[in-house]
Amino acid sequence: MRVMLAEDSTLLREGLVRLLAEEGHEVAAAVGDGGALLAAVAERPPDVVVVDVRMPPTHTDEGLRAALEIRRRWPDVGVLVLSQYVEKRYAAELITADTGGVGYLLKDRVAQVEEFLDALDRVGAGGAAFDPEVVRRLLAHSTHADPLSRLTPRERDVLDHMAQGHTNASIAAHLHISQSAVEKHVNAIFDKLDLSHASGYSRRVLAVLRYLGS
């Protein structure tokens, strides 16, 4: 894949450049702030961008705002956010997007190289990859969980994996159950959350929105 990086830590940025090159990816740009990333993407959009959350000049949410701008202007570009922090507002906006090709990992995952590369591949292929800890932190601030009380523990497990961006086949593999069982659980979730007859919207996205209490 053709990848662009935005990370203000020179050491981590250069480490990622080397890692991706060794895996056969082309690193088209490696920059230290969100503005430079947007300029590089505008010149020639890559397949995927990997972006930190907090970068110059204010070290608050510049990277995440750049990621959302890329999603808006270049929806075909995959976005993998890589950060030490969970910015709840923007993370929820990313996690409930119905466009695919998006992920949010905590930087601890970089040390687990295979997990990071797997997430990059999933995002590049148009899928989703969300760190379970990101999902848990979002859920910890949810105040509208009443509809979820009707779900069984297994259905909650399935919905948790849906929120992480897993497909039915991937959920089946992670939970060690059949894909048909996952499909039954998903349909039960839609029924219990009154989404069975929803039209015009993705029921999976609506279910995740309910799960996050949005």
Automatic annotation (TrEMBL):
Tree of life domain: Bacteria
Phosphoprotein among keywords: yes
4-aspartylphosphate: modified positions: D52
UniProt cross-references to Pfam families, sorted A to Z: GerE, Response_reg
Protein keywords: DNA-binding, Phosphoprotein, Transcription, Transcription regulation
Gene3D superfamilies linked: 3.40.50.2300
HTH luxR-type domain segment(s): 144-209
Domain spans labelled Response regulatory: 2-122
InterPro entries for the chain: CheY-like_superfamily, NreC/VraR/RcsB-like_REC, Sig_transdc_resp-reg_receiver, Tscrpt_reg_LuxR_C, WalR-like
PANTHER family (alphabetical): TRANSCRIPTIONAL REGULATORY PROTEIN NARL-RELATED (PTHR43214:SF24), TWO-COMPONENT RESPONSE REGULATOR (PTHR43214)
Name assigned to this protein: Response regulator transcription factor
